[in-house]
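Let's do one together. I've listed all components of the complex below, 227 residues spread over two lines.
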Amino acid sequence: GAVVSQHPSWVICKSGTSVKIECRSLDFQATTMFWYRQFPKQSLMLMATSNEGSKATYEQGVEKDKFLINHASLTLSTLTVTSAHPEDSSFYICSAPRTPVGNEQFFGPGTRLTVL
Amino acid sequence: KQEVTQIPAALSVPEGENLVLNCSFTDSAIYNLQWFRQDPGKGLTSLLLIQSSQREQTSGRLNASLDKSSGRSTLYIAASQPGDSATYLCAVIMNDYKLSFGAGTTVTVRA
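Okay, and this is what the predicted structure of the assembly comes out as:
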């Protein structure tokens, strides 16, 4: 299957700092990537859709100025959590569909963010 | 808005027993449906993808059925093993590739 990587796998930061998370499709091009957030013992919630060469689209209730998304190339999307606070602590996961082969979604291994 | 429900929330069985995990969704205009496995603190592993035109998909001990009109999918795991212990997530894929996830079924297979 296709491979999606994320970096870093975990990060601890102080409140008020910004954290950047990278999502890469290693063996296919992804014009679209998705960012999800998962709180403990809850399912994944879609945060935003990252589009190569254009602005990201955010789901209702997600602050676009807080969660900055940049899809700089066909294999890389970044999520920056700006001025992070403890309530932003969560598991962030990205995914990418491999098209036109099929729209099966391939997920990264996730990034555990802890804000102190 | 698509709502995805998984029942039961948790399941504990002895090794060797067959597992039946249920998923229901409210909007039947789905593109595909995908089953995932998630181990604690880890990302998602894709198990099976069922195209909306298909009725079922099989991979090894796993079989997933899809009844799009009634908004249901079932994942069957035959002859369960302790290594099958994990959380299983059902996700429906709409035409825009967005996934809506269920809350998952946490499975424990006792040796």
